[in-house]
Amino acid sequence: MINLLSNIKISVPDKIYIKDPESSKLGKRIIEHSITLIDDIGFDSFTFKKLGSKIGSNESSIYRYFESKHKLLLYLTSWYWAWIEYQLVFATHSIQDKDEKLNKAIDIVTRKIKEDRNFTHINEVTLNRIVINEYSKSYLTKEVDEENKNGYFIIYKRLVTRIRDMILNINSNYKYASSLASTIVEGALHQHFLNSHFKSITDCNDNNITDFFKSLTFKAIEIKNNDR
User: Fold this and answer.
1) What is the pLDDT of residues 4-21, one digit of tens each?
2) Where in 32-166 does DSSP place strands (E)?
3) Per the structure, how many domains does the chain have?
4) Of 12, 149, 154, 174, which has fewest CB within 10 angstroms of its CB?
5) pLDDT class for 102, splitting at 50, 70, 90?
6) Are 138 and 70 in contact (CB under 8 A)?
């Protein structure tokens, strides 16, 4: 099983990058060290010049892979959501019970992240911090509609759709399945952020964020007698 998982390649929409960073040692170093640098100094202060200095390469070599740091952030966040999706699919595909399946899916998208040794050049724990702190910067732009048309957010949307479908499998009459599914995914990031920075306005911590979203979800979609 370990050998099988080690052969899995996380796919990111190819329009995001110029050259696939997974195709070369330099590309993998760009990804590995961009994660540590963004985590260290923040995305706003991050530049390709600083990254080039960190990896001992010309700034121009990074531009052969990504046309801008915005596209690099899109790549990192898309990779993260694809990694979450792969875990969700793998963990739920053999579960027949509908409640248990959704329960496991919420586990996957809300829990505290642990490092996955199947991808040695990417530290998922560090990448998770970037997604929590910086993900909104990938879509709060003037170009978001055009980038959406180009499929840049397809993995994130597909993940939300998978959870939506699990909700509807339990209660097909629930009117807000997409809204609830996106709230689970986005809300988990927000609660992790609050737990790290604004503890006074959240009741959640690393150990009970998942419990909160399970309670919220299953109470919302509870089937009443008149729904049967």
Assistant:
1) 344 567 899 999 999 999
2) none
3) 1
4) 149
5) very high
6) yes
Among residues 116, 112, 111, the alpha carbon closest in space to that of 86 is found at: 116
The sign one gets for the Cα dihedral 171, 176, 177, 181 is negative
* CATH code: domain of residue 31: 1.10.357.10
Domain span including residue 206: 9-223
- Burial grade of 21 (CB within 10 A; 0-12, 13-18, 19 or more): buried
Contacts of 202 (CB under 8 A, 6+ apart): 191, 194, 195
Query: Could you tell me the pTM of the whole model?
Result: 0.92
pLDDT per residue as tens digits for the range 18-39: 999 999 999 999 999 999 999 9
Calpha distance 123→130 (Å, rounded): 11
Nearest CA among 144, 149, 156 for reference residue 77:
156
